[in-house]
Amino acid sequence: MIKFSQIILLISIAILAISCSDDVDPSTLNPVQKALYNPERPDADREQDETRMGESVLTIAAVKPGMVVADLDGGSGYYSELFNALVGDTGKVYLQNGQRFVAGHSDKLETRLEAGRLSNTIRIDSGYRDLKLPENIDLIFISLAFHDVYVSQNKDEWNADVPSYVSQIHKALKEGGRLMIIDHSAAKETGSDSANKLHRIDEAFTRNVFESAGFSVTASSDVLRNATDDPSVSIWNDEVKGKTDKFILVFTKLSE
After folding, report:
1. Other Cβ atoms closer than 10 A to 171
2. What number of other Cβ atoms are within 10 A of residue 126's Cβ?
3. Could you tell me if 155 and 120 are in contact, meaning their C-beta atoms sit under 8 angstroms apart?
4. Is the pTM of this model over 0.70?
5. Confidence of residue 1 (pLDDT cuts 50, 70, 90)
6. Which terminus of the chain has a lower count of CB atoms within 10 Å, N or C?
7. What are the distances in angstroms from CA 248 to CA 42, 61, 85?
8. Beta bridge partners of residue 71, listed in sequence order
9. In a 10 Å sphere around its CB, with 0-12 CB exposed, 13-18 middle and 19+ buried, how is residue 114 labelled?
10. What is the DSSP string of 188-241?
């Protein structure tokens, strides 16, 4: 299993410095850096690059031209915009969101996708029980949203059936396809108990959910770790907001 080291952190710091320079020669940038330095990216996205460790995460995701990527519960599309640049004209990005996000924030999606500005990206509005994903996807990406499948929603039809949700992901991925999950760390051995109130989930529990469903962990990273985070505090608490300890796991779909 690959273990990403602090080199990734140094790379991310370097790209931040590059993005702040007006004298960058695009020919010196790798594809990930070009995606991040794209002058057409919204300023609001650029402001998130440092805390999201954008280059580090994209390096781990290893998205290449021609790939098909699904960004599940991708919100307003911070990562989808970057994936859109990386897959190129021969690839596709599916930006999926559940009913709760669409009900309250669809204006943000419309602004990002207006006038076809992300030509390789297809918007999907769908619920946990029917994600409406195509098959033969190369990478399914879930950032800070897997814990939400264990959160009780205001409307029953918005609630997830977890086994069905996991099964849909497995079906949508091609053989050898990858699933990348980033989420807020809960205390060890707490399973999904922290999901409702704290919006966190146990890393070992997450591993077990997918390993039991035909996936194998093939990579992980500590690049978003924060040892000072208190896992007993809600992610929305000002004490930890934007600074939570986060795990990154990459799974590969095993052969049938």
Report:
1. 12
2. 17
3. no
4. yes
5. low
6. C
7. 25, 10, 22
8. 95, 141
9. exposed
10. TT-TTTTHHHH--B-HHHHHHHHHTTTEEEEEEE-TT--TT--TTS-TTSTTTT
Q: What is the DSSP string of 57-108?
A: HHHHHT--TT-EEEEET-TT-HHHHHHHHHH-TT-EEEEEE-HHHHHHHHHH
CATH 3.40.449.10 fits 2-253, yes or no: no
Q: What share of the chain is helix, strand, coil (3-state, %, to 5)?
A: 40, 20, 40
Distance of CA 32 to the CA centre of its chain: 16
State the Cα–Cα distance between residues 62 and 83, nearest whole angstrom: 10
Q: Residue 125 phi/psi, 5° resolution? A: -100, 115
| Phi then psi dihedrals of residue 53, to 5 deg | 55, 55
**pLDDT at position 11 over 70:** no
Q: What is the pLDDT of residues 40-77, one digit of tens each?
A: 999 999 999 999 999 999 999 999 999 999 999 999 99
**Quick check: 77 and 107 in contact, CB under 8 A?**
no
CB atoms within 10 A of CB 90: 10
